[in-house]
Amino acid sequence: MANEAIQVGTVPIQAIEMGERERLLRGLAAATFLIFFQAYMVAPLIPRLSSAFGVSSQTIGLIVPAYMIPYGISTLLYGLLSDRLGRLRIMFTSLLAFVVLTALTATAQSASQMNFWRLLTGLGASGVVPLALALMGDLFPYAQRGRPLGWLFGAMAGGMAFGSTMGVLLEPFVGWRMLFVGVAVGATGILGVLLPYRSRLSDRVGGRAPSFQEVITGYRSLLATRRGLRTYGCVLWNGIFHSGVFTWLGLYFVRRYGLGEVGIGLALLGYGVPGFLLGPLIGRAADHWGRRWLVPAGLGIAAIAVGVLIFDVPLLVAALAVTTLSLGYDMTQPLLAGIVTALGGKRGGQAMGLNVFALFTGFGIGSFLFGEALRLDFGAALAMFGAIQLVATVLAIPLFRSEITPPPLE
């Protein structure tokens, strides 16, 4: 990667000024923030939407997997298309789809209509974030990728934090429909800011479209190595665990502490804050020390946070546990994405597409499984997820021991 002149339009990557890379990075981080803002503002609104549409919490809770699973599946297609047509072309088309479909979600008149628009939004919006991550693999060498990936994952964490909090805080004043309209308006502004890069860095690569057999062979090669299998497996479980717990935290605070919408928003205030503030710093730590200990530590921190939520602790302690849970995510998923950027080679889009497929499929599965476990009670559901996370922590120590600091580039 370091010695290849990757072509973006007529300009080799190495010839693109660092300032331009940084401006593009920040624009993509802003788009990432809004996409995750709207994704995470939905789950805390489950009690409110349940009342608005006159359905049970489990029924309206399906809007989470209705968005997450199609999002994950369609990234497989977007990754392949980006390797053929270019990252930027697909990203801008997907961002435009996000604008339109997010605005249309505000027109839903029933839970089934809400699920329909969420499904279409998941299909349309899923080409932005994974391809932005893959583009970082094109723009930055592996030894310098932790910081830009930290920016993008920090934007994801910020979107989680502000979406889960501000959405439920603003809903009583503006209504849930205006929340979606506001996100669509903000995304329109970001699209306008990014459009000049579409002509400046036209990165169409062209070439023969891969056959079905070549596509399958590409996925097999990504999963054939021990490094690829353990990385994608950890991504999948990470998505199941974190989405399973987070999706139902709003209902958790209603049942456990009797909070209203404002109280839920304040209790979730810390979720995503560690990544938003520390994302680039965590990325630099990975660049300096490697991912050998950081990934298992992140898994273990999340397991401890869920363990705290099992017990009848004071509200403030529960809110701090939510913040700690977020830190566990921020110490794992960005670092796993950094490994994925090194797995794909010339098929970086396919590699990152598989990564986001595993993550968002895990998001959808996790929210569904935790909802089913709630038929027992919150304590049992949290104990099951926490126990499996603890096992994953122990297994990660030997599995990731080879992820040391990469050698400096010549």
Task: From the structure above, extract its key features.
single chain, mainly alpha, Growth Hormone, Chain: A, two-stranded antiparallel sheet, 19 helices, 2 strands, 1% strand
3D architecture notes:
This protein has 410 residues and is an all-alpha fold. It has one domain (12-202, 211-399): MFS general substrate transporter like domains (Growth Hormone, Chain: A, Up-down Bundle), CATH 1.20.1250.20. The protein is 77% helix and 1% strand. The protein has helices spanning 18-40, 46-53, 57-60, 63-85, 87-105, 111-125, 129-139, 146-174, 176-200, 212-224, 226-247, 249-257, 261-267, 273-289, 294-310, 315-330, 333-343, 348-373, 378-399, and strands at residues 7-8, 11-12. It is globular. The N and C termini lie close together (12 Å).
**DSSP strand count:** 2
Mean pLDDT: 82
| CATH level-3 fold name | Growth Hormone, Chain: A
Largest sheet: 2 strands, antiparallel
CATH superfamily grouping: MFS general substrate transporter like domains
In what order do the strands lie side by side in the largest sheet?
1-2
Q: Which regions have little confidence, pLDDT < 50, spanning 5+ residues?
A: 1-15
- Overall structural domain count: 1
CATH architectural group: Up-down Bundle
Assembly classification: single chain
Note the run of SSEs as H and E. Answer: EEHHHHHHHHHHHHHHHHHHH
Number of helices: 19
User: What is the general shape?
Assistant: globular
Query: Strand-residue fraction?
Result: under 5%
Kindly name the structural category. Answer: mainly alpha
